[in-house]
């Protein structure tokens, strides 16, 4: 009796041990299918890349220079006698800025003027003597050689007068160099040497800048230069903007005036020069800024930046195929625009890419795509 019951229990236990795993596997499989069904039914917005002709702004680091910026240096050695201006002061052309001690040059001028007076006096005496000699020659009292000598003396004195006048002009010029004047209207910069300082010949007294307009120099690559020439051949003075150090645009637009003649072999770039008016005096010589150059794009393929993700410095998007299956695809971009990328390779306008929720997507899963128009997406991005 006991043996039969034990045998029955053993059979029951064996049956349970075989059935329970089957039930668990069925339950797990059912849960997995339900989970996959849930993922499959999840909706994601998708868009098609758009291909259009457009323009984007390319930024270049610019070197700002005043249209006139000049160093004023001492012509001669001397003490600074007077300083008539202050740093940062606006001055007018030909306004006196500094005076160096000029006693020596005043004395030199007086000396040359005195020499001229002496020579003029000698010339007058020689002219009287010449007149008398002519009379004596006519009366055969003296020989004609005396007349020749008298004329030669006058010619020598006239040459001495010319030399004296040149010496006076030089003395006046040297004296004028002790008064340093503004060569043009502008702003005085730093004055390193103060009143009473002994300065040597060539010592920097200050610099003066005319900031009514400025030049912005910037460099572009050889390819960009060729593209620029192709796109702007008809319009020589291309309009550009200037982005200031506070990340704000200058009110006045500028014009590209010239392209430098040589390509830098080391950097592979060529220099451009743009000119900007500066009525508010915001720009100073040496300011930091960026040129904003509009660059035309033909048949550019655009996608929103938020559709992309990065893995090990490579850029990817999720592409949805005809069976609504998601695949990860690498793309390359040629340039950036506000909220948009310009695609160089990896996508066509016929591809569908996931617009939002890419953090919840995995390659290989199926989705329910909700197609959005590119114009709708642009409107959303612009409002944000």
Task: Characterise this structure.
There is one protein chain. The model is unreliable at 1-5 and 34-40 (pLDDT under 50). The protein is rod-shaped. It has helices spanning 2-40, 103-138, 144-176, 222-232, 374-383; strands spanning 43-47, 50-73, 78-83, 90-91, 96-100, 179-181, 186-188, 198-199, 204-221, 239-244, 254-264, 269-277, 288-304, 309-311, 314-320, 326-337, 340-345, 352-354, 368-371. α2 packs antiparallel against α3 (144-176). It is an alpha+beta fold and 384 residues long. Strands 2-9-12-11-10-13 form a six-stranded antiparallel barrel. It has a four-stranded antiparallel beta sheet with strand order 6-5-3-8, with no helix packed on it. Helices cover 34% and strands 38% of the residues.
